Structure prediction request, 295 residues.
Amino acid sequence: MSQQTVHLVDASLYVFRAWHSVPDEFFDVDGKPVNAVYGFTRFLLDLLERARPSHCGVAFDESLTSSFRNAIYPEYKANRELPPAELKLQFAYCQRVAAALGLCVLSDLSFEADDLIGSVVHALRPQQFRAVIVSADKDFGQLVGEHDEIWDFSKNLRWDSVGVKERLGVHPHQVADYLALTGDAIDNIPGVAGIGAKTAATLLAHFGSLDAIYARIEEIPFLRFRGAAAAYVKLKAGAAHARLSRSLTGIACDCPVPLEALSFALGKPDLAAVDKLIEQLRFGPLTRARMRALA
Prediction:
């Protein structure tokens, strides 16, 4: 059976990029800033025009302080500033734009966009769908199966499972363990102090998994790589952090998302909703024309 493709968009990444890159000179009918909405809408239109997807989902992060990971580790992402009120309004607009254009919008207060995308990948794979994950986030490497891809749309770079190995030094099924060892400063995941990317990749190449590393930790001082003895000491001292970090780095693939491919089939734009948004957001003639042309 031939495979179909579902495009899954890590929407928050592109909303934040637009917020930082589009001049703060666009306002809705109430005078509230909508520069991020302008940039995100242009991104979505570019994606739809270039990829012509048959199936597409757009996942938003709404669990910035209420993710299940915060219950495990209250300091998770505590180093990030929460979006200001004006950006929260823009996120809501972005969801409305995606829905009006006929895209399946995903969001949840307990699960992050990564988890929602991972759950769709796992739900549709048995239905003969490959996934193209539109993001630049390395965490998604753990979802990449034999036929899947990550697409950094802004740079027009794509990588598959081989590309994950080339970029991180580990196979997709090892990415969560790799991140548990190295930590992730962006998400405030501690990892094991002093264990860098090269050492983590070397250890996983030899042992296969984080569990195996700790099950056979006494072998590490005798391995033939520079710093093996020091790595052993660091791993012993950081065992609790490694286990904690592993509970945070794995993408949950059992979230409440639509399970049928039909839910992600690209629909025709809702012209009434599109026209309402065009007026509320005061879109210019080019964006108006592009939105309506998709109907």
